[in-house]
Amino acid sequence: MNEITLEDSIMKLVEEIRFYEIRRMKLIKKILEKNVFSKLKMRIQKLTMDEISVCGVDGGMLQLQLNGLDVVAIRAVAVVFHYLTGRLASVEYFPSGPAPIHFFLVKEPLDKVKTDSLAGMRRQILEVSRAREVIGKGAAQLVLLDGSILPQYVERFQDCREYAEQYDELITSYRRLFEEAESKGVLLAGLVKDSRGKRFCQMLAELAELDGEDKDFLLSYRDIVILDEILSEKERTIAFPYTEEFPPQTLGGLEDFGRKVNVFYARMSQFDVPFRVEFLATRNSEEVADELSSILEFLFSFGFGFSIPPVLVEADFRARLREEAEWIQERVFDVIGPRFLTRRDRRPL
């Protein structure tokens, strides 16, 4: 019996990829013939921004595994770009000096999924706190989060006290953020660069009256894969509710605000893939989407090839822990000694 070579396996994979690509393009052509895309997308209006302040919020995280304990280091930064007469006039940081690094121990014995989720919740709480600080001081008209504006990758595990308490604190933090943004009239949005959403494909299948294999095939794709073929530069989709994609009960304590969260996809450059924008709609969702997409178009004009607005690039640069990671790890191990190292870290190199 002849064994399949690596080259044969790769060729088989390539053939399968080509098959799906050809089928996808045929389906898109079929939908184009039905002339339904015009109902789902529009041009982004270009506005002249005489004066606007925009905030970007991001966080960094580092996890260390010790013998019996997990150590998590996090920090979050908010950056405000103040624009005057269409130009960047000044930059403001929250905190104003170097952002402190917060450490905490995961003391309960948890599996990796729960440990990672607990660490993620801690980071989201700190990021939300920074956003609230900016809104409370009236420092920006638009606050942009790096990612969703709703809690992500979390679940309320009742069997873990520490986890349940952290989850409740996370939900309370988001609720306060939404309440403050709504009361102060501040635009709150999140940019998701690699969305796995499928709601747009569902809408497209319904509008194009697809059924059978065509419908199943379309729904097997993420929105951004299809929108990469549909959206042109400086175009966006219509806004649609977040809660139709994720039932309100999964928002765990944020159901009322979940109904105000809307979504649209936008493409700012022909060389970049579309990105997802989630926003809090305190008034007509299309009016907010028009205003928000126009501001984003303005911000991306300073992008210098980046796939996210410069204010988020700066927030990411200030928040990341990549450069300090090795120093933090070595310093912790120098102080506590080798007995806290995991078995694999004790092995000689």
Describe the structure.
The protein has 349 residues and is an alpha+beta fold. It has a single domain (46-196, 232-325), classed as archaeoglobus fulgidus dsm 4304 fold (2-Layer Sandwich), CATH 3.30.2170. Helix content is 42%, strand content 21%. It has helices at residues 6-33, 112-136, 161-184, 199-207, 212-218, 223-230, 255-258, 285-300, 310-319, 325-336, 343-346, and strands at 41-43, 51-65, 70-84, 87-94, 102-106, 142-146, 187-192, 235-237, 240-241, 261-267, 275-280. Strands 1, 2, 3, 4, 5, 6, 7, 8, 9, 10 and 11 form an eleven-stranded mixed beta sheet that branches. α2 (112-136) runs parallel beside α3 (161-184). The longest helix is centred in the first third of the chain and has 28 residues, at 6-33. It is globular and about 65 Å long. Mean pLDDT is 86; it is low at 245-249 and 343-349.
Number of domains: 1
Distance between the termini: 42 Å
Order of helices and strands: HEEEEEHEHEHHHEEHEEHHHH
User: What is the β-strand count?
Assistant: 11
Structural class: alpha+beta
CATH class: Alpha Beta
The total count of helices amounts to 11
Largest sheet: 11 strands, mixed
Mean pLDDT value = 86
Strand content: 15-25%
CATH architecture verdict: 2-Layer Sandwich
Helix content: 40-55%
Tertiary shape: globular
Uncertain segments of ≥5 residues (pLDDT<50)? 245-249, 343-349
CATH topology assignment: archaeoglobus fulgidus dsm 4304 fold
Give the radius of gyration.
Answer: 23 Å
